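Run Fructosamine kinase FrlD through structure prediction, thanks.
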Amino acid sequence: MKVTAVGDCGIDRYVDLRADRPGGISLNFAANAKAWFEPGDQISVLTALGQDREAAIVEAAIVSLGVGAFVAKGSGITPVQYIDHDATGERIFVRYEAGVLAQHRLTGPEREILRQSDVMIATVFTQIVDFFETVAATPSGGLRALDYCNLGTPEDPLRYVHRYAERFDLGFFGLSAMQADVIDALEAIARRAGRLFIVTLGPEGSLALGGKERIAAPAVAVREVVDTTGAGDSFAAGFLSLYARSRDVKAALARGAAAAARTIGQIGAFPAPLVPWPADVPAEWTALKRP
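Sure, done. The structure for Fructosamine kinase FrlD is below.
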């Protein structure tokens, strides 16, 4: 089985730890897919990186993980996500710089990679939506999944869901149980489009929407929450590793929960060294730390 994660591979910049590590939604997924899919499955990322210090960190991680890589190199920065934490280990999203990924558009050879994929997962968020349009327009050979990091825009909160739901078999959403109105709206869209939507709710578990009835699954308890960064990406990898072969939603939700639980007990979505910031870091990096 060929599994391709398309989109964001970059740097998780921890402003509280004054350190960088490889991350990004697509790399997080691929690293966990390597652990949860079958040993003979081919796991790859398709992304764009700059030609900078940060790109070297990401490329070293790709080699270490043993995943395949289709990397376009651009003149600009590698994507960077700035992260802080609260006292419970919950990630605080500070800022995102899309860098060269925002300017990239799929090439002919990259489109062919998607056409040959048995499982393809992409991600959509506002900063890279023009790049993502080229992904959404490209057919792929098997199961198509989409991680909705943004559901829409301030003017149209569900814009991306309405626009892309019918182009993908599966949608992943990270919400909270307090967002009942949003969950109801997603369920209506999933049923109308004939699609499966998976909603992760942190410690409240997860839901599968789109069938006649919702399917709920509990979260897996962990002894200590260290960092929630990448928990949703890990969940998606665990879920798809089973669902892609069996279409068993309930069992796939349970596996996704197990994958997410493994992730939140460590820094980042997969084991990787923290790279201390250079001595001459810009003052703005330090200034992003929350009081």
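The two ends are 47 Å apart (CA to CA).
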